[in-house]
């Protein structure tokens, strides 16, 4: 169920970082992606929901910092 990424996920430029963030989250909970295959479906789904939420928030934070840095740099050039 969780082994094959979707075509859209593979094409997205942030995919490697997103996958790493998901792996980091799972590792912090004591699991790997392989472990999810052996867990009950609801437990695996809950872990992946938490991991995806974590990754999404971290990616948003990175994007916000990037935009903020660009704005500061642009304002300095004025």
Strand content: under 5%
Number of self-contained structural domains = 1
End-to-end span in angstroms? 52 Å
CA-based shape: elongated
Can you characterise this structure?
With 78 residues, this protein is mostly helical. It has one domain (14-77). 77% of the residues lie in helices and 0% in strands. The chain has 4 helices and no strands. The chain has helices at 7-11, 15-28, 33-36, 41-77. Helix 2 (15-28) crosses helix 4.
For this entry, give a set of tags.
mainly alpha; 4 helices; elongated
Q: In short, what is this structure?
A:
Helices cover 77% and strands 0% of the residues.
Topology:
Layout: H1 7-11, H2 15-28, H3 33-36, H4 41-77
Helix pairs in contact: 2-4
